[in-house]
Design goal:
Length: 303
């Protein structure tokens, strides 16, 4: 990575896990505000941008706030791309997500499937805003020949995640709930049936892969970043988390909650062709490290 690569969202789960780069977050500039962001980003004279900043949240937060997810992500993405273009930045990575693919396709997702049907209803605001990021990046690439592309990561987890129980994703929310249940001798309550299936990637792996792609990927299409050998049901995820955290209490499934999208399996053959020998962090190991990280940083990250 060059010295003048800016990482937006540098305080978040993905951005904070990059080893190098100039990491910025909302304390440096509000990406909703074009002028403020333009001036701040110009001052760093960047030659590339890895755009991790976004409004992000778990399934239940997405169900509650489709408008906010749509508006904020559309505006932040439009601003950063315009700034990037105005400053002549030639390399740019935008972040999509596997949860924005058409729902219920009946086979593993490929990069070319992105726009062929509506997303799952639970996150349509976020999904359509992200799909427009892909459209805009494609347009910049076609019209100006820039090396701009999107990565499509599967569910991410790791250090510096949003561990909020109400609006976080499943891994950080469950880690926080297990911690509380252990310390207060309470039951662990899982939302939904546990039957939905997901693939997970350790944030550090994702950051390392993006770093490699920034320098070595010249393709003109998005690229799925997942470890598709690792699809598991939420119930299996719960079992691993119970094991690595040594939780001995009762586990209860509250089936009054939605399971969200039931399957999000990906086909990562495009990534594998580029990065043949990448060794993903095994899920159990990554979850254990993340649980320990949460315990060690509890006072700063409990929200
Ligand atoms: P995150 O932990 O929630 O971090 C979000 C980052 O965006 C924070 O650094 C935050 O800064 C920054 N940000 C938010 N609003 C901003 C604003 N108005 N101005 C400036 N900065 C702002 O998110 P993440 O999980 O790392 O996600 C990174 C990217 O990966 C996102 O594009 C997301 O859509 C995508 N993605 C995430 C997942 C996942 O499971 N987490 C899965 C697939 C794709 P502050 O700390 O200052 O608020
Ligand atoms: P998604 O993968 O985009 O749907 O987002 P999440 O990371 O929020 O994962 C949602 C899946 O985890 C659904 O199947 C939920 O039923 C399940 N889940 C179980 N307990 C929780 C919880 O406490 N919080 C969240 N966010 N999801 C949970």
């Amino acid at each position: 990575m060059s010295k003048s690569c800016i990482i937006t969202g540098g305080s978040g789960l993905v951005g904070s896990n990059f080893k190098d780069g100039i990491k910025i977050n909302s304390s440096h500039c509000d990406l909703m505000n074009y002028d403020e962001s333009y001036n701040k980003i110009k001052s760093f004279n960047p030659d590339s941008i890895i755009h991790c900043a976004a409004m992000v949240g778990g399934l239940y937060y997405n169900i509650q706030h489709p408008l906010k997810f749509f508006e904020k992500n559309i505006q932040m993405n439009s601003n950063i791309l315009k700034i990037s273009h105005e400053l002549g930045v030639k390399k740019f990575i935008g972040f999509l997500s596997t949860c924005i693919f058409p729902d219920n396709l009946g086979r593993p997702y490929q990069e070319t499937d992105l726009h062929i049907g509506p997303p799952h209803d639970s996150n349509f605001g976020y999904a359509y805003a992200k799909r427009m990021l892909e459209v805009k990046i494609r347009a910049y690439r076609k019209e100006f020949g820039y090396k701009y592309f999107c990565v499509i990561p599967t569910n991410v987890y790791g250090y510096n995640d949003n561990f909020n129980i109400d609006n976080g994703h499943v891994v950080p929310a469950l880690i926080h709930k297990i911690y509380n249940a252990k310390n207060n001798n309470e039951d662990l309550v899982i939302k939904g049936t546990g039957k939905a299936k997901r693939e997970f990637i350790f944030a550090r792996d994702l950051a390392n892969i993006c770093n490699y792609l920034l320098n070595h990927y010249d393709g003109d299409d998005s690229i799925i970043v997942s470890d598709s050998d690792n699809e598991i049901a939420i119930k299996e995820l719960v079992d691993i988390l119970v094991e690595v955290s040594n939780f001995k209490g009762n586990v209860i499934y509250d089936t009054s909650y939605s399971d969200g999208q039931l399957v999000k399996k990906t086909d990562n053959s495009k990534l594998k062709n580029i990065l043949e020998n990448f060794e993903f962090t095994p899920l159990e190991k990554g979850l254990k490290k993340t649980y320990e990280w949460f315990e060690n940083n509890y006072e700063e990250v409990r929200k």
